[in-house]
Amino acid sequence: MNIAGAIEYLSTGLSPVTEEHLTEARLAVSDMAEIPYNRLNKYKASTFPAALMPRLEELVSRRKSGEPLQYILGKWEFMGLPFYTRPCVLIPRQDTETLCEEALAIGGKTLLDLCCGTGCIGVSLAKLGGFEVTFGDISRDCIDLARENAALNGVAGSFVLTDMFGNISGSYDMICVNPPYIPTSDIALLQAEVKREPALALDGGADGLDFYRRIARDYAAHLNPGGALLMEVGAGQAEDVAAMFPNARRIEDICGIERVVTVRG
């Protein structure tokens, strides 16, 4: 079987699972065959190693069980950078790139990446914007993975195990937060693969806004004068979140959804 055949085989197997079956097949074959995604067409006639066929079959089986592709592959791209992924941590998503792009446009020297998860925000801003980053999360697994991802991308940082601002000292030019924001009653309605992600990173309380209330209460003590607070929000939440902060601004993602709320210190 050649590379093109492997993609077709995997795409067919994944078609009952996801509308993105061709994209997922290409991503998986790229990863397994160690061919850059944007060069798959060039190597489409090359042989796909027979020893990897069981991995294709295993991938289809795991996806049918609802396991996200990002966890199966163990690595995912965000802001053009590689990140390790594990079931203990929220998967990096393109939605969050809106926050990073806004942060890069604002600029600054010191950054707190709160609820850091994989560390994708802080690592990206350290790598692409030169920020000195402190990573904070309530989960030891998240802190450990953020440390690995910082090393993977060749950036340094400080890592703090903390419940929101509880163990954070000092202040920063920028605070970025992608907190849990799914209303508790909506958790059961999520797609099967999203339910595989840790509830700790999803559940935002009865109305999904519990963590924003905590941020509104505590952020000012940790933001330098002239600094910026950037928060990712769920679809339909931007107006309510912005109302909690003075002079807040709402920013749309590429789909026209208000995805980020910013506050200037």
Short description:
With 265 residues, the protein is α/β, with parallel strands linked by helices. The chain is built from ten helices and nine strands. The chain has helices at 3-14, 21-33, 53-64, 69-73, 97-106, 120-129, 140-152, 192-195, 210-218, 238-242; strands at residues 75-78, 81-84, 110-114, 132-137, 158-161, 172-177, 223-232, 249-252, 258-264.
Give a written overview of the molecule.
The radius of gyration is 20 Å and the shape is globular. Helix 5 (97-106) packs parallel to helix 6. The chain contains ten helices and nine strands. It has helices at residues 3-14, 21-33, 53-64, 69-73, 97-106, 120-129, 140-152, 192-195, 210-218, 238-242; strands at 75-78, 81-84, 110-114, 132-137, 158-161, 172-177, 223-232, 249-252, 258-264. The chain is 35% helix and 19% strand. The protein has a seven-stranded mixed beta sheet. Strands 1-2 form a two-stranded antiparallel sheet. It has 265 residues and is an alpha/beta fold.
